[in-house]
Specification:
CATH superfamily of one domain: VSR Endonuclease
Order of helices and strands: HHHEEEHHEHE
Shape: globular
Helix content: 25-40%
Distance between the termini: 43 Å
């Protein structure tokens, strides 16, 4: 009997057949489209997202992906609470229901998923190969809605921090420090993928 089974260690699948689930980072939802991959076209290149389930199943899986209280969002909330900040969550009276609201500092924090909010240049900003017209329209609506919400928030006097999920895979202390410094400042905007951030604090996935 293999040693792993004798000692009660979990068996880990190592096969990566085309169309099977691949290992994914902690910040992706269990049913995230980025978890699926089709056959690879060439070594070292990302495969196109060929769907492996029927349309009804795909619709059910998509509807189950969480929009709030995601792992990246929870990590940011824990870090802010540890730093002494108190905040509101998903304020319904504000445009877009921002993920985190700090009324004292007149600041909101948007924790964006790279796939749904179309993070430019990110490896998680993939596009399903099936029904391309549907996805193009859906993504464009998301982009337009985000821009509209940002405009209304700014017009109402709110400062905006945009945090991308790929930059939150590892929430190191220097990232938290940059965010908390922005909150206490009067700067109108902050973005986790800003090239002015120290390179050591940026995720290679961003």
């Amino acid at each position: 009997m293999p040693r792993s089974l004798q000692q009660g260690h979990p068996v880990r699948r190592t096969d990566r057949r085309p169309g099977t689930l691949k290992a994914c980072p902690w910040n992706l939802a269990p049913n995230s489209p980025a978890m699926y991959q089709g056959p690879s076209k060439a070594p070292g290149k990302r495969a196109d997202m060929a769907d492996v389930v029927d349309r009804v199943t795909r619709a059910r899986m998509m509807s189950g992906i969480k929009g709030t209280n995601t792992r990246p969002e929870l990590a940011v909330r824990r870090a802010l609470h540890a730093a002494g900040f108190r905040y509101r969550l998903h304020a319904a009276e504000l445009p877009g229901r921002p993920d985190i609201v700090l009324p004292k500092h007149r600041a909101v924090i948007l924790v964006h998923g790279c796939f749904w909010h179309r993070h430019a240049g990110c490896r998680f900003t993939t596009t399903p190969a099936t029904r391309p017209e549907f996805w193009a329209e859906k993504f464009q609506r998301n982009i337009d809605r985000d821009a509209r919400n940002r405009h209304m928030l700014k017009a109402a006097g709110w400062r905006i921090a945009t945090l991308w999920e790929c930059d939150l895979r590892q929430l190191e202390q220097d990232k938290v420090k940059l965010l908390t410094e922005w909150i206490r400042s009067v700067e109108p905007e902050y973005a986790s993928d800003d090239p002015s951030m120290p390179k050591a604090s940026r995720s290679p996935a961003g």
